[in-house]
What does this fold into?
Amino acid sequence: MATITAADVNKLRTITGAGMMDCKKALVETDGDFDLAIENLRKKGQKVAANRSDRESTEGAAIAVVNADKTVGVVITLNCETDFVGMNESFVKMAFDMANLALNFNSKEEFLAADFNGITVAEKLIEQTGVIGEKLEIRTFEKLEGAFIGSYIHSGNKIATIVALSANIEGAEEAARNVAMQAAAMSPIALNEEGVDSEIIAKEIEIAKDLLRQEGKPEAMLDTIAKGKLARFFKDNTLVNQDYIKDSKMSVGAYVKSIDKNLTVTGFKRASLG
It folds into this structure.
């Protein structure tokens, strides 16, 4: 039987992030075989993950990162069960490491299958479920490309946003961050009117007409008044038409054009916990 030293246990703990006693037990059970010990720890994680598959993972970290050229950005949420775990420094670091890796992929499926320090992202989540004892998952994966991408992460990593602008010009970084803060705070449903789903529009018109009928408005006037209410809906719920939170006298679109008359917002992505 192999002699299991404290250095061996610490080495396995460093590799896997598992607890000291779990690492010692795994090494004893495998007679010091590191690869087999790691596999056993991962199997433990799989068992725990299965046992916790029905648990709610509404806490965690919402992370936004942008590549060096400021042309690609991603937002992800690494979800867990408790705020205690979600605020842990190691957990947040893992979330950032995963987000930076996610920049290289176009879909959540590709990202989960990607290599993360010798195992896939999906396998790492299972492994860490065993280590931490909580259900972990990547719930949100959103990617955005553009001439200039800016990002914002709200305090406590609860909300993360990325915004694309039409040009990389002087002032673009500050503008993109400000618009990303707007998206985080005001939770728009679309970039502009064209981005709002037709079903949502139809529902809003229907609601507006029902309210107008209750107010006794003539049937012949309903379409006209409902269109006005729809315009207000677009103003409140689409990013470029919202009042700019730092200066309510202008819209977000107008704010961006105050930086440069040709500058526009071309896209955004938002992720939040819960």
About this structure: The first strand starts at residue 59 and ends at 66.
